[in-house]
User: Which sequence fits this backbone?
């Protein structure tokens, strides 16, 4: 099987030839750290925004090489080129959201253009642009149909709170629900239009990335989720399915109180299943493993940063035992390969997936 | 006292307008500002904290309850100053260097205010020297550091060391919390307290002063 077939089979809740392997998100430091096991001449670790064009190309090429060398079956692309650098510490995206850069993680939205209903009348949302799909195009050209091409799309909640500010959005759910709906409508219209571009560009799997929970609880009440978030994301699911794409829902945190709503929305896969947030793989498999493909769960909070390759191998073996039975499991970490993970542990995860993930037999 | 229990319930529901009206009415009825604060506003916030910790309500409900509490406190403030009421303690709070996440820290600040703390919020991405300077500028009982990103955790330890080097370690209790912090980590870096959630953080802060 090709990586693409493997991923699509697992997302269809069938057994591929082996448990597919997938990286949802990865930072610069682990790309360089893992890449050093494959090639020479990589720069010292630094943030993408500090790299010149040749370093950026080398970084992306290294990421492709990692996917090839370790037989990672899917590649995740996302929008690039939609941000403007303001100064060393700040960027602004084409929605007008201001982000603070940090050397320790992804930029965090800190300036919000749509704080109140009146702001909407003066606001013009961006349109999706084909040239922002460059990363996907490069991956498609490189992998030539051998790997599943994922696209990470921010969902209604994340896009809305970035526009309004998270606390403000939550308060507006009480003060002015029509404003919250107007934001969700606007960002969903953008996403639906983007989906047309993605379909034409040959994306295989849409990831609706819409963090909605922390490790204890959902961020908003389940009824607010069902009112202000999921109906909008569901439009993406329906349209993607109609276009023949698979759809994965990504959210950090404890999703138990929302799981039934997520099933109703018709997602094919669920990621990243954080063990620290109560998303025990065995329990989730028992609860809904026959309805949704499970993706993730290899602990990136403690195990991949602080464990040993032997411990990682054991965790991969356990995850396959817990979730691979009958298909419907894609091995991946429990959120992202962030700057704190050890490259050797990531490699141990990749290799163990192939060692223990052979069907028939995996998970039995 | 039904008026104060009504006030507490209005706060629990996040009904800011009703909290303002009932706070003003309690003052008109010559209730003590300190009693209105503790038996009305803080009693309501206690219920909010317990329900939040239990997963019965979620962050948005806490936000509107805290907003209602602040509205009541604004009305009470001049009266509290006149009567010389003292806060339970002074708590300096901030998210550590490199980390720009604020909602967890803000929730802790709200719960602390609901326990009667005066809260000095240094914001996000706070380097160790700013925590130290804040300790010099304010007579604080407790300093609290938040971090969501595990990679920024070392800045907690660095700040504790900086407080030690400044000779201030014995003057203040230190608490840590946030998405990637555990009790084991708090113990490891020599913090005095930890909050697994916002409600517990505020309860533990009070306990540290006992």
Assistant:
């Amino acid at each position: 099987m090709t990586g693409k077939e493997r991923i699509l089979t697992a997302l269809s809740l069938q057994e591929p030839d082996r448990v597919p392997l997938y990286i949802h998100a990865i930072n610069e430091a682990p790309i360089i750290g893992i890449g050093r096991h494959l090639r020479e001449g990589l720069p010292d670790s630094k943030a993408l925004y500090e790299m010149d064009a040749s370093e950026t190309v080398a970084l992306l090429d290294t990421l492709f090489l990692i996917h090839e060398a370790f037989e990672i079956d899917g590649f995740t692309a996302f929008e690039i080129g939609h941000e403007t650098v303001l100064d060393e510490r700040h960027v602004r995206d084409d929605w007008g959201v201001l982000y603070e850069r940090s050397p320790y993680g992804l930029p965090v939205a800190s300036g919000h253009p749509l704080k109140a209903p009146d702001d909407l009348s003066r606001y013009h949302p961006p349109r999706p642009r084909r040239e922002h799909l460059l990363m996907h195009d490069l991956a498609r050209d490189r992998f030539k149909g051998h790997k599943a091409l994922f696209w990470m799309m921010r969902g209604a909640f994340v896009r809305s709170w970035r526009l309004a500010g998270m606390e403000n959005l939550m308060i507006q759910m009480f003060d002015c629900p029509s404003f919250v709906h107007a934001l969700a409508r606007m960002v969903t219209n953008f996403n639906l239009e983007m989906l047309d571009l993605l379909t034409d560009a040959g994306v295989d799997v849409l990831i609706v990335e819409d963090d909605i929970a922390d490790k204890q609880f959902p961020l908003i009440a389940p009824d607010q989720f069902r009112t202000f978030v999921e109906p909008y994301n569901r439009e993406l699911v329906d349209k993607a399915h109609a276009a023949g794409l698979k759809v994965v829902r990504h959210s950090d945190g404890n999703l138990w109180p929302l799981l039934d709503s997520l099933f109703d929305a018709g997602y094919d896969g669920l990621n990243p299943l954080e063990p620290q947030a109560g998303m025990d793989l065995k329990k989730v498999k028992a609860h809904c493993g026959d309805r949704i493909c499970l993706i993730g769960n290899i602990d990136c909070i403690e195990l991949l940063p602080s464990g040993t390759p032997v411990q990682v191998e054991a965790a991969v073996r356990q995850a396959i035992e817990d979730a691979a039975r009958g298909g419907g499991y894609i091995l991946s970490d429990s959120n992202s390969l962030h700057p704190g993970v050890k490259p050797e542990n990531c490699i141990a995860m990749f290799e163990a997936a192939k060692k223990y993930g052979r069907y028939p037999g995996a998970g039995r | 006292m039904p008026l104060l229990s009504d006030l507490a319930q209005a706060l629990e529901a996040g009904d800011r307008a009703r909290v303002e009206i009932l706070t003003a009415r309690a003052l008109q009825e010559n209730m003590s500002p300190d009693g209105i604060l503790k038996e009305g506003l803080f009693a309501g916030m206690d219920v909010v904290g317990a329900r939040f910790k239990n997963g019965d309500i979620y962050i948005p409900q806490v936000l509107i309850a805290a907003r209602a509490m602040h509205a009541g406190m604004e009305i009470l403030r001049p009266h509290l100053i006149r009567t010389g009421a003292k806060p339970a303690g002074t708590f300096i709070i901030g998210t550590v260097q490199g980390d720009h996440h604020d909602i967890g820290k803000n929730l802790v600040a709200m719960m602390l205010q609901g326990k009667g703390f005066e809260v000095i919020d240094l914001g996000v991405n706070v380097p160790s020297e700013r925590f130290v300077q804040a300790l010099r500028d304010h007579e604080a009982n407790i300093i609290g550091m938040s971090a969501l990103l595990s990679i920024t955790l070392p800045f907690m330890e660095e700040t504790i060391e900086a407080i030690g080097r400044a000779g201030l370690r014995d003057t203040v209790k230190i608490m840590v919390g946030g998405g990637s912090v555990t009790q084991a980590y708090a113990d490891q870096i020599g913090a005095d307290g930890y909050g697994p959630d916002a409600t517990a953080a505020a309860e533990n802060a009070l306990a540290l002063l006992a």
